[in-house]
Amino acid sequence: MNQESAKLKLTNTSFSNSHGLSDKANKSTAQDVIRLTMASLKFPLFSEIIKKFVYESRVVFDFDINRPSAQRGVLVHQKWYNLNILLNDPKGRYRGVKTG
């Protein structure tokens, strides 16, 4: 994640893990989040997902050495919920990216 953030010139961002998900050690600025968002919007799948209130996917857990070996490589059905209330805008002016 840190190598990718450097490519995007996210100079005030650092990640403590490879997936960039919640961790108190992950740091960024509003400006870097905007840069990341603009780069992400170039990907059609990302643009499609952020408009939805619920997105379902399949995730393979095989990267975590702390996970018991019987659970590595397991395909898990995951449901993601977008809690961004701006998606309710009747004029459709907002996309479901970070709001605060």
Report on this structure:
There is one protein chain. This protein is of the alpha+beta class and 100 residues long. It has two domains: 1-40, no CATH class; 44-100, no CATH class. Helices cover 23% and strands 16% of the residues. The protein has three helices and two strands. It has helices at residues 2-7, 30-40, 44-49, and strands at residues 54-61, 74-81. Strands 1-2 form a two-stranded antiparallel sheet. The longest helix has 11 residues, at 30-40. It is globular.
Topology of helices and strands:
Blueprint: H1 2-7, H2 30-40, H3 44-49, E1 54-61, E2 74-81
Antiparallel strand pairs: 1-2
Low-confidence stretches: none
How many individual β-strands? Answer: 2
What is the count of distinct domains? 2
Largest sheet: 2 strands, antiparallel
Give the topology string: H per helix, E per strand: HHHEE
Q: Please, how many helices?
A: 3
Strand order of the largest sheet: 1-2
Give the % helix: 10-25%
- Rg from C-alpha positions? 16 Å
N-C termini distance: 21 Å
What share of the residues does DSSP label as strand, in percent? Answer: 15-25%
Task: Assign an overall shape.
Answer: globular
Structural class: alpha+beta
Mean pLDDT value: 84
Structural descriptors:
2 domains, two-stranded antiparallel sheet, 23% helix, alpha+beta, 100 residues, single chain, 2 strands
Task: Summarize the entry for a quick read.
The chain is of the alpha+beta class. It has helices spanning 2-7, 30-40, 44-49, and strands at 54-61, 74-81. The model has no long low-confidence stretch (mean pLDDT 84).
